[in-house]
Amino acid sequence: MNATPRPADATPRPADTDLVLADIAGLLARLLEDEYGLDDAEIGMETTFNRDLELESIDLVTLAGLLEERYGGRVNFAEFLAGMEFDEIIELTVGRLVEYVVTSLKAAEAS
Fold first, then answer.
1. Tens-level pLDDT at each residue, the chain (111 residues)
2. Residue pair 47/53 in contact by the 8 Å Cβ criterion
3. Where does the Carrier domain lie (predicted)?
4. For the chain, which domains are there?
């Protein structure tokens, strides 16, 4: 049986919130496992980096590297954080990051 790829298989998929959430949850799980030996954290859109995951500022630097590795220059995490007040960073949710990544990927696709 020959499987002929559909045209949609040959083109990159547009940014999708669920896919990006799964990607970011995987990156965070990898970070938590590597840094803290935790591998069972539940990560969803409402999960906070500080309160729920207890990430420190150095962890955000590591996350920036993981995002760069995954998305290349299409997503600039440092720029994203630079536009926030300290309190916003403390309350940052996975969902807000997912929304930023989706927006960044859509902008990159459009250009």
1. 444 333 333 334 456 999 999 999 999 999 998 877 776 778 999 999 999 999 998 999 999 999 999 999 999 999 999 999 999 999 999 999 999 999 999 999 888
2. yes
3. 15-97
4. 15-110 (1.10.1200.10)
